[in-house]
Specification:
The chain is α/β, with parallel strands linked by helices and 498 residues long. The protein has a domain of 276 residues: Alpha/Beta hydrolase fold, catalytic domain (Rossmann fold). The protein is built from 16 helices and eleven strands. Strands 1-2-3-5-4-6-7-10-11 form a nine-stranded mixed beta sheet, with helices on both faces. Strands 8-9 form a two-stranded antiparallel sheet. α3 crosses α4 and α8 packs across α11. The longest helix has 22 residues. The radius of gyration is 23 Å and the shape is globular.
């Protein structure tokens, strides 16, 4: 779900308990709490911040069992009399570390820091909070399904040796429900009666679950790239990605330079699809050395779906698909490599990712049609990953979205291949009249990365009441353009006119 692609080349998107709630989780604070943080520094932030941690039982039913530390960071407001309601940023994935994203998301909140603290909590299973990280891997481009399965088995074995995993079933205690109880414990530790939630991608699911459990403690919420709890991502990923791909082909046809260079782009895609699987020799994107790899349909879909998340990356797809249809796979391999070997702070805790998805989405998937299900079916990929993964318990009410008790701003990218506007529309209806939905037509997955939306975010949270918050001006979203399709320059031959 956000921002947020698995490192193992399983296309388990981003994504997205009948257990006792920890005692005191909803109790009102009787008196101000002493500052539980200490001065520290984190990567990407030039100024000193405050770091804190709380100790939590992995399983609330076993208070004497494994304990985990949930880490958080507070970026202090520069105001002498800062507002009492901090902003909590919930990261995507599932599996991203909020603290690792501090430098990335800082521009979103820079103006808000003039009045309010920003709190980044590493959700259990991510970052520094009992992380469920899979070992780093170095793979050839277009990794095979068998190689992916081998990686996953190695990851599960490595996680079983962690000190806070006493038994394989302990991997089931990393659900969104339990994580939001941790989040509320952080709120209490900081002495905040109310907080403002900003969730991105899977972080929107987390925010909705916090709102369900602890609604009175939420002042405002902003949900960017809405992934509701009832979404069942493996089921929706296929049609939503296809819609984004169809829109890309149509966009190319509407651009004269793209249409002229790739007049048969849809046919190129079909020709490429029909030619797979095939063995090709190409230059390795990282080393430049020639490598021979087997290119499967699943691998090509992975590269294409990943690029569709961001319109700037998707702009390279017409050239890459055209080249691949004519036997040259360097473009697609380069996109795949860039997506999977990008900035370290974007890396997912794959174990946590699976613990969430296998508990919350997998049980609601349609029954398998049989062993012949193609590997290109996202549901088949999730079934293979979740078949042996421990599944945590999820309360029935988890999938219910209650009416909002506060102003909520929902944001969608019109080109988003994983959380398109139709999902936010359903959430808006459930939240009721205190929810507003803004669509950025030419944006992909996540719109808060666009500078014009920073002002809208600030105005929404700073507004003195819900009515003024819902009336903020977000018209700049309509003028964000779609990047033009990339066409590889043709260098002049020696002796020709430039």
């Amino acid at each position: 779900m956000c921002c947020h692609r698995p490192v193992l080349r399983l296309w388990l998107a981003l994504q997205l308990l009948v257990l006792p709630i920890l005692a005191g989780a909803t109790a009102a604070l009787e008196a101000p709490v002493a500052d539980p943080t200490v001065a520290c520094r984190i990567a990407g932030i030039k100024t000193e911040v405050r770091c804190g941690q709380i100790v939590r039982a992995l399983d609330a039913a076993r208070p004497g069992g494994p304990q985990i530390k949930v880490h958080y960071v507070v970026l202090r407001s520069v105001a002498r009399n800062r507002k009492p309601d901090p902003v909590f940023m919930l990261a995507g994935g599932p599996g991203q570390s909020a603290i690792s994203l501090a430098a990335t998301v800082f521009p979103w909140f820079e103006r808000l820091l003039l009045q309010r603290d920003l709190v980044l909590v590493d959700q259990r299973g991510t970052g520094q909070s009992a992380p469920l990280m899979c070992p780093p891997v170095t793979m050839l481009p277009f990794a095979s399904a068998s190689a992916q399965a081998q990686e996953l088995a190695q990851c599960r074995a490595a996680l079983a040796r962690l000190p806070y995993i006493a038994a394989p079933s302990d991997l089931g205690f990393f659900t969104t429900t339990l994580a939001m109880q941790d989040l509320d414990a952080v709120r209490q530790a900081l002495g905040a009666e109310q907080v403002n939630l900003v969730g991105a991608s899977y972080g929107t699911r987390a925010a909705l679950e916090y709102m369900r459990q602890f609604g009175p403690h939420v002042r405002r919420s902003v949900l960017d790239g809405v992934a509701p709890p009832d979404m069942v991502l493996p089921t929706t990923l296929g049609p939503d990605s296809q819609a984004a791909l169809d829109a890309l082909w149509a966009s190319c046809g509407a651009q004269s330079h793209c249409q002229k260079t790739f007049p048969t782009l849809a046919d190129d895609w079909q020709a490429l699809w029909q030619s797979l699987p095939k063995t090709v020799t190409l230059a390795h994107p990282m080393t430049g050395l020639p490598v021979t790899v087997s290119v499967t349909r699943d691998a090509v879909l992975g590269a294409v779906r990943g690029a569709l998340y961001t319109p700037a990356w998707a702009a390279a797809l017409p050239q890459a698909v055209h080249d691949a249809a004519h036997g040259h796979f360097e473009g697609l391999a380069g996109l795949e490599s860039a997506l999977h070997n990008g900035a370290p702070q974007m890396r997912l805790a794959m174990g946590m990712h699976l613990s969430v998805v296998c508990a919350e989405d997998y049980p609601r998937m349609a029954p398998s049609t049989g062993a012949s299900a193609p590997s290109t079916d996202p549901q088949a990929q999730y079934r293979a990953a979740c078949r042996d993964w421990p599944q945590g318990a999820v309360p029935a009410d988890f999938y219910r979205i209650p009416a909002a008790q506060h102003a909520s701003l929902l944001l969608s990218g019109g080109l988003d291949p994983v959380t398109p506007p139709r999902h936010a529309q359903r959430v808006q209806q459930a939240l009721g009249p205190l929810a507003r939905h803004v669509v950025v037509p030419q944006a992909g997955h996540g719109v808060l990365s666009h500078a014009c939306m920073h002002k809208a975010l600030t105005a929404f949270i700073q507004a003195p009441d819900d009515a003024k918050a819902l009336a903020i001006d977000a018209s700049c979203a309509q003028s964000i353009p779609r990047p033009l399709a990339f066409v590889r320059p043709v260098l002049p031959t020696p002796g020709s006119a430039p």
